[in-house]
Amino acid sequence: MVDLARETDLMKLNNATLSQLPESVLRPRYDRARLKPGIVHIGVGNFHRAHQAWYLHRLMQQGDALDWAIIGAGVRQYDASMREKLLTQDCLTTLIELDPSSSTAEVIGSMIDYLPIEEGNGALIERMARSDIRIVAMTVTEGGYFIDPATKGFDPTHPDIVHDYQNPATPRTAFGAIVAALRLRRENGIGPFTCLCCDNLQGNGDVLRQTIVSLARLADPDLANWIDENCTFPNSMVDSIVPATGPNELALAHQLGIDDMTPVTHENFRQWVMEDDFCAGRPNWENVGAIFTDDVHSYEAMKIRILNGGHQVIAVPGEVLSVKTIADCIGHDLISRFFTKVALEEIAPLVKPVPGMATNEYVGLVHKRFSNPKIIDTTRRVAFDGSSRHPGFVIPSIREGLAKGSPIEGLALVEAAWARMCEGTREDGSKIEPNDPNWDDLNAKALDARENPNAWFEMRKIYGDLVDEHRFTDSLARWLGLIWEDGLEAAISTYLET
């Protein structure tokens, strides 16, 4: 940890102090005063700044993409705190790469402004409606796209969606704001922009198109048709492990001598795979390592099934067994072996390899990435919002495994462990604080499922028609009974012996 005596010597991060950064810290070589906006990004969290903003920053370091700078945006009140912090430091961010053998740091400057967070989203709509904005991108979490988990279709009944189509000029959601901005662009003859989803959703561009076009159609079918015909929604896959910022991350920035209120730590791995379908142009991201392909699906399936699904395989048992970080989970013999067996035997055989990477090799790569002790990624963060992450990351493997007659016992055990976690206590008796937007319902179902497993797997909004698949439900019920009777470690040991 940083010596508190040095706190008064820390250098405030902003444009004026860039030249004073320690020599070991990389900094923008481009003149930030010359940057012009081209992208609005909604959802300026740690992942965006360590991933998409970094790729653009690297292009700018080459003297390219200087007219593609990012304007940050948000639609929820909790975004206001991030906005205030970033504006205080001229939207600069310290990125600290944590590799087991070394650490490096750089300050990135590809974001130049952050729009006000306000009711009705007027500033956001007005800025997206200007002709210089050619891409609107977003990272709003997997559960933020108003999808019915059972049908995968658009859910028009959500109160925020009802508000937006009844009040199209003053929307609550990012999607309502995008529709409003596109309406203005159409009226003013400006033309469309590309809508770029950067969340962990299979077919994320298709999902984003579904949400925006469906919302527009509720109020203005002609506008919906114009959006569908003129805007583009490229599918993409994003990958890098980026923990939340807390005291440890702030201390790492302080150790560099930098007073950054929002530093970001990340692993030494990034991947960005996209369809090349941008209706109003794009930066030359391929020059800094992004991959453009017509087969994004294979990349995203490998990543979502093995990495994101694998995160749930280890984080859920980790929470129940009081293992605090993902690296500690890999250091836990049973959890580590559990991940490897489930990934190799139940997930990877269903995944198509991508150029240069066999699925078994990817399992090994993910295991190595998860084991990085410098990445303080908590099991709680990874296990958050299971009601979105299990349908998106785990259940597709179960569904395909059932269809193909391949093993699903380990995946059923993951779901049983999730039911145990949602009961709200760890095996050491400590309390698990609410960790899901639907926690109250999950907790009630998990409590009932202790005696009646049907209460858990009959949640059709989570499992859909899987509740009628007896090979899955019988397995889940058996594992849940064993967990409550003998404990989760005993259940995992039993599975590992099969």
Automatic annotation (TrEMBL):
SUPFAM superfamilies: 6-phosphogluconate dehydrogenase C-terminal domain-like (SSF48179), NAD(P)-binding Rossmann-fold domains (SSF51735)
Top EC category: oxidoreductase
Residues in Mannitol dehydrogenase N-terminal domain copies: 38-286
Pfam families per record: Mannitol_dh, Mannitol_dh_C
Residues passing through the membrane, by range: none
Family matches, as InterPro entries: 6-PGluconate_DH-like_C_sf, 6PGD_dom2, Mannitol_DH, Mannitol_DH/Oxidoreductase, Mannitol_DH_C, Mannitol_DH_N, NAD(P)-bd_dom_sf
Annotated Mannitol dehydrogenase C-terminal domain residues: 295-478
Gene Ontology terms for molecular function: mannitol 2-dehydrogenase activity
EC number: 1.1.1.67
Keywords from the UniProt entry: Oxidoreductase
Protein name per its UniProtKB record: Mannitol 2-dehydrogenase
Organism: Aliiroseovarius pelagivivens
